[in-house]
Write a structure and sequence with these properties.
Strand content: 5-15%
CATH topology: Rossmann fold
CATH architecture: 3-Layer(aba) Sandwich
CATH superfamily: P-loop containing nucleotide triphosphate hydrolases
Strand order of the largest sheet: 2-3-1-4-5
Order of helices and strands: EHEHHHEHEHHHEH
Helix content: 55-70%
Number of domains: 1
C-alpha cells in the first residue's frame, strides 16, 4: 500500500485543475482537498478574513508567507492525512514552502503541472464567470499575481509531470493509470 502520497495538481487559472482533481479523486477513491479551502481556513483563523483572496490585500511580507506555509502544511497533515488516509488529491497550488515542509516529513508529493494554452484558459474563465474576454483576462491576471506570491514558477520547475490541459479528461486520466501506475479503486 502507498503511504503518504499527495497528488498535487497545479496550473494557472482556467487550466482545468478542479475538473481533473475531482475526476481523479473520484476514480482512485481518495479524498480531494481544494487549495482555496485551506486558504479560506487560514484567512478566517489567522486574519479574520472572509476569503483567501482578501488575505492578499494584507502586506506582502516574508512573515505572512511563512505563516501561510506552516498553516498549509499543518492543515494537510492534521486534517487530511491523519483523518482521511494516506493518499489525497489536492486541487491548486500549495505554496512552494509548504511543499518543502511536507517533503521534509518524507511525504511523497507528486506535482502535476496542467499546462493549458492561454486562450483556452480565458475561454474557460469566461464560461465559469459568465463574463467578457477582457474581464476574464483581468481575473486571470489577479490570480496570476497571487500564485506568483506563493511560488507557482518554482512549483512548475520542480513538477514531476507535465500534462497537456488541452486534451480530453479521459486522456489525461489514462496518463495517471498507464504512465504513473496510479490504481483505480472506484470505477
Amino acid at each position: 500500500m502507498i503511504k503518504n502520497l499527495i497528488l498535487l495538481i497545479v496550473g494557472q487559472s482556467g487550466a482545468g485543475k478542479t475538473y481533473l482533481s475531482k475526476k481523479l479523486s473520484m476514480v482512485i477513491g481518495c479524498p480531494l482537498l481544494i487549495f482555496s479551502e485551506i486558504g479560506a481556513a487560514f484567512g478566517k483563523e489567522k486574519y479574520n478574513c472572509s476569503s483567501f483572496a482578501e488575505c492578499f490585500n494584507l502586506p506582502n511580507s516574508d512573515e505572512f508567507i511563512n505563516e501561510l506555509n506552516y498553516f498549509i502544511y499543518s492543515y494537510i497533515l492534521e486534517k487530511f492525512l491523519c483523518l482521511h488516509g494516506n493518499v489525497i488529491v489536492i486541487d491548486g497550488l500549495v505554496s512552494i514552502g509548504a511543499i518543502r515542509l511536507l517533503k521534509s516529513e518524507c511525504i511523497d508529493v507528486k506535482i502535476f503541472y496542467l499546462n493549458t494554452p492561454y486562450e483556452l484558459r480565458i475561454e474557460r474563465i469566461m464560461k465559469r464567470l459568465g463574463c467578457s474576454h477582457k474581464e476574464a483576462e483581468v481575473e486571470e491576471q489577479i490570480k496570476f499575481s497571487r500564485k506568483n506570491r506563493l511560488g507557482i514558477d518554482e512549483a512548475i520547475k520542480i513538477a514531476d509531470h507535465r500534462l497537456d490541459g488541452s486534451k480530453q479528461i479521459d486522456d489525461i486520466l489514462d496518463y495517471f493509470f498507464n504512465e504513473i501506475k496510479i490504481c483505480k479503486v472506484n470505477i
